[in-house]
Specification:
single chain; alpha/beta; D-Maltodextrin-Binding Protein, domain 2; 2 domains; 8-stranded mixed beta sheet; 4-stranded mixed beta sheet; binds beta-D-galactopyranose
Length: 438
């Protein structure tokens, strides 16, 4: 772990290194260094429309996108927003369609991509333009955390603009279900073992201790169980080969993850994240581990934190912020590059980031928006992002390439379906992550 000094909100951020993929230390360079690109407008400058691909297609996620599109309409009334969103949490459907479109030379005008390893895939494939010129033009180099700019910079070029930062390691809690089980909802368990003891008490009441959804939500739980059990340094070592996936510590964490999966709802493999959260909202289940887009689902139902629900860092991960960020790109060959530029201007503007993140449950990537402008949850997340140790999410593209998270998803869902055991799962995870240590 290393402490770094940075400008703005992240001045005391403690960063744990995880290969090339974490927010990294930056000795003052990076920000001014945006290397002469013209903002990637290699194709036409057509600003008549902008077709944007996201997976914010329904429910509370669509509400976030709608808030952003409203600001876009005000800022760029002459550019039509064409919504190419494809439903499926974490991009479970959208990323496949995007790959096919990119490979066919038929890109959208902009698409949602996670910062970190996932973005690197598109850079390596030559599918996205350097937009560092837009950082100069829109005055962005000083408003994002220097460490985030540094992470986004590859060979002096920057290939996307972040709209928000989400936190992965959050437990969403139904206080009434805990009280019924004799568990105090106001005191989060100190570690995973204490939390699992509480899950057993909930199970004894006949309610579901923890809910899960389809493959990527199981990976989402897994990354946070690994973080809780291994701690941030060894967790980061999973992504650069310095922590042994075949080792005893990982085996012990997998055994605990497997127990939690077995306590969860049996219809999990068919559910996206929002339906998987529902039983917790409705008092049929106690806990769900999900990114903080979940707060948007509570907001959409007018539920109040501290009364209807509670949230904690996953037990054993207090003081650690498991990070992911959405960002937007200018694809090579975009048909309406003028529209792309307009969209990137809105998503990076203070007004756009305030409107979007207020509804989405995330915090702004910009550091110059007053926390007081945001709801209570986001205020707490902004404080945590400033002070906590930052690590990268696997399920959401920050820690490892999509090929790795896809292989992990396949292994965990095989376990969920009863087609493997913990030792087989561990062998499959060793194989899934082998490329990371090469
Ligand atoms: C993440 C994405 C979030 C949210 C979530 C659930 O991958 O970064 O913004 O959309 O998936 O779909």
């Amino acid at each position: 772990m290393r402490q770094i000094k940075k400008v703005g909100r992240l001045s005391t951020l403690a960063v744990v290194m995880s290969g090339a993929l974490v927010l990294s230390a930056c000795g003052g360079g990076g920000s001014g260094d945006s290397s002469g690109s013209e903002g990637g407008s290699a194709g036409g400058e057509d600003a008549g429309e902008v077709q944007v691909m996201t997976w914010w297609a329904q429910g509370s996620e669509k509400a976030g996108l709608d808030a952003l599109v409203e600001v876009f309409g005000e800022q760029h009334p002459d550019t039509e927003f064409v919504n190419a969103a494809l439903a499926g949490g974490a991009g479970s459907q959208a990323k496949q369609k995007l790959q096919a479109d990119l490979q066919a030379g038929n890109p959208p005008d902009s698409f949602q991509a996670h910062t970190g390893a996932e973005l690197q895939d598109y850079i390596d494939a030559g599918q996205i333009e350097d937009v560092s010129g837009l950082y100069d033009e829109f005055g962005l180099t000083d408003v994002f955390p220097e460490s985030l700019i540094e992470q986004l910079t590859v060979d002096d070029q920057i290939y996307s603009i972040p709209s928000n930062v989400h936190r992965s390691n959050v437990v969403w809690v139904n206080p009434a279900v805990l009280e019924e089980a004799g568990v105090d909802p106001s005191t989060p368990p100190a570690d995973l073992d204490a939390w699992m003891a509480d899950m057993e008490k909930v199970a004894a009441t006949g309610k579901t201790p923890v809910t899960l959804g389809m493959d990527w939500t199981q990976t989402h739980l897994l990354e946070n169980v690994l973080l809780s059990e291994l701690g941030p340094e060894a967790y980061n070592g999973l992504w650069d080969g310095s922590t042994d996936w075949a080792g005893g510590e990982v085996n012990s964490a997998l055994t605990k993850w497997a127990q939690i999966v077995e306590w969860s709802n049996t219809d999990r493999d068919g559910l996206d994240w929002e339906p998987a959260l529902q039983p917790v909202m409705q008092g049929e289940a106690a806990y769900n581990v999900m990114g903080d887009w979940a707060v948007a689902a509570y907001d959409a139902q007018d539920m109040t934190a501290g009364e209807d629900y509670a949230y904690w860092p996953v037990p054993g991960t207090d003081g650690v912020f498991n990070y992911l960020a959405d960002s937007f790109t200018m694809p090579v060959g975009a048909a309406h590059a003028g529209g792309t530029k307009a969209w990137l201007e809105t998503i990076s503007s203070a007004e756009g980031q305030l409107a979007f993140n207020t509804v989405k449950g995330s915090i702004p990537a910009r550091t110059d928006i007053d926390a007081a402008e945001f709801p209570e949850y986001q205020q707490s997340a902004m404080e945590a992002f400033e002070n906590d140790t930052i690590v990268s999410s696997l399920a959401h593209g920050a820690a490892a390439p999509v090929a790795v998270s896809t292989a992990v998803n396949q292994a965990v869902v095989k376990f969920s379906q009863g087609a493997s055991d913990v030792d087989t799962l561990q062998q499959e995870l060793v194989a899934a992550t082998e490329s990371l240590s090469q």
